[in-house]
Amino acid sequence: xxxxxxxxxxxxxxxxxxxxxxxxxxxxxxxxxxxxxxxxxxxxxxxxxxxxxxxxxxxxxxxxxxxxxxxxxxxxxxxxxxxxxxxxxxxxxxxxxxxxxxxxxxxxxxxxxxxxxxxxxxxxxxxxxxxxxxxxxxxxxxxxxxxxxxxxxxxxxxxxxxxxxxxxxxxxxxxxxxxxxxxxxxxxxxxxxxxxxxxxxxxxxxxxxxxxxxxxxxxxxxxxxxxxxxxxxxxxxxxxxxxxxxxxxxxxxxxxxxxxxxxxxxxxxxxxxxxxxx
Length: 278
Prior knowledge:
Blueprint: H1 2-9, H2 11-17, H3 20-39, H4 48-79, H5 89-111, H6 114-129, H7 138-146, H8 148-167, H9 175-194, H10 201-237, H11 242-259, H12 263-272
Helix pairs in contact: 1-3, 2-3, 2-5, 3-4, 3-9, 4-5, 4-6, 4-10, 8-9, 9-10, 10-11, 10-12
């Protein structure tokens, strides 16, 4: 499964070069793996011990990524709209940088650990041999393979219905509701990518492209929502910066509200795209 290859290929970039893009790509690999396992859960249920270990790894990578985005993307972007010099802003940036380094160190320790190596080995063993015997005959296997096109259409249709349902009130949605739309868009996109070989290429490319644009806009807003939570955590850790952080969070909330309007064009473009056919 290329999801596992994507995870493994980015380990050295994190551990040896502290490369933010490698961290991002490993997280994407984990998310794609999670989506694939969710799609095929009825056929190939993931053992609980692997679920626990994947959750452990995802937690470390997610925390490192969240603080990295705050340090290198969200805060610099926000700084461009803050129209006055606020005492304590440089101290906030330094505190964020320190926290980001701590979380990145923890991520490096995780991917450099024996626990990580054991997880990857057990996962690959399960993918290769854990489902042997699920088909009791060549005929049963042939029948199962013949059902794949219908199963693919069912998955794609279900993912799209869920996304439409979540996105009905996207214009006025709160951050928590937008996050649910983002997750639904991610699942729809990954489902289309998983079944790409079965789909009409041109339609599938347009569909995935429209989903990617929607994900980008929703992801940008989610980064800002997460930034608000991280800044609150920072204020709890650094009470002396409380007032300055309160000021920054106020600007963040107003900026996020203004950026939310950019979702609608992406949502309308997606709604015009056709569900890929086989």
